[in-house]
Amino acid sequence: MRRTQREAADGLRRTGGAPVVDVAGSGARRTARWRRGTDARGRTARTRGRVLAASAVLTAALLVFHSAVPNAVGRPGSLLEAFLPWLGLAVPVLLVAGLVRRSVTALVAVLLPAAAWAVLFGGLLLPADRGAHDITAVQHNVSDENPDPAGTARALIGSAPDIVALEELTPAALPAYEAALAPEYPFHAVEGTVGLWSRHPLTDVRRVDIRPSGIGEGWNRGLRCGVRTPRGEIAVYVAHLPSVRFRSTGFGSGPRDESARLLSAAVAAEKVERVVLLGDLNSTVDDRGLAPLTSRLSAPRRGFALSWPAVFPVARIDQVLTRSATAPEVWTLPATGSDHLPVAARIRFDAS
């Protein structure tokens, strides 16, 4: 013991009193841990990264079981579903974190949300079916503050649609839209703030009452028109559902959901088999608030077509839905003077 103490004292004298650090020894221990796959706390590639793995499992669960998220208070379920595809951003983040942590458990767990997202939304990224179609439709909330109605109308004509549905029409701007669209679309109907322009004759035009309770008279945002296409008559509905609001009590979607139920009842009663619904529905097709409609009508098969807000679109709330018809592809058109992007879709009628 005395010899060891003397040797330590001699070592301190040789180093000027500074402690000696066994760098070689600690480096060797780190190298050994690396080779064994353990970290400083002795965790292996299989046992570390459990928090990351749990986060991956939670993300996958939210994607697959989003309908299980309660909606009674504050409607968090609808809020989640309105932006559901964006949960996919968690996948690359978790993947990079798992690589940094060198965690096999986390990397395997990341496969769960990746697979769930691919099943739910991967098909929208596949190449569009651009085969034969019967009509092309354009849907656009033109904004009641649009500074250039005529320019907006000309931009929509450029995509050569057969029918054009517009929302947020104002009495002041309506003449400009009518004048610009009339040469290409001689048939049109307007009800309140929504309207339809068509290359083909219109029949049985009428207002659709989708006014939720608590909103006074004069609120007209629903329109139904028969359109006589070369392939037969279709019923076209144009609608603008109430906006949602973020309040202290949560996601305020009650009026919109009620309006969706009223619109669904009108579609259910429609006698014409082929139906096309064009409108600003103020949510995505994944939102359970639109389930009364999406349970009766089909959404496009290809394309995300995020339409709102125009400066940085995060959701497609402008919809093209069909019955006894399919929309093989949906896409957005260049920005206009609106805070929404126009949405276009090719529509193919089912065999009658």
Automatic annotation (TrEMBL):
| Transmembrane regions listed in the UniProt entry | 51-70, 82-100, 107-126
SUPFAM superfamilies listed in its UniProt record? DNase I-like (SSF56219)
Per the record, the domain of life is Bacteria
Checking InterPro entries in the record gives: Endo/exonu/phosph_ase_sf, Endo/exonuclease/phosphatase
Q: Which part of the chain is the Endonuclease/exonuclease/phosphatase domain?
A: 139-340
Q: Answer yes or no on keyword Transmembrane helix.
A: yes
Q: Keywords of this protein's UniProt record, alphabetized?
A: Membrane, Transmembrane, Transmembrane helix
How is this protein named in the record?
Vancomycin resistance protein VanJ
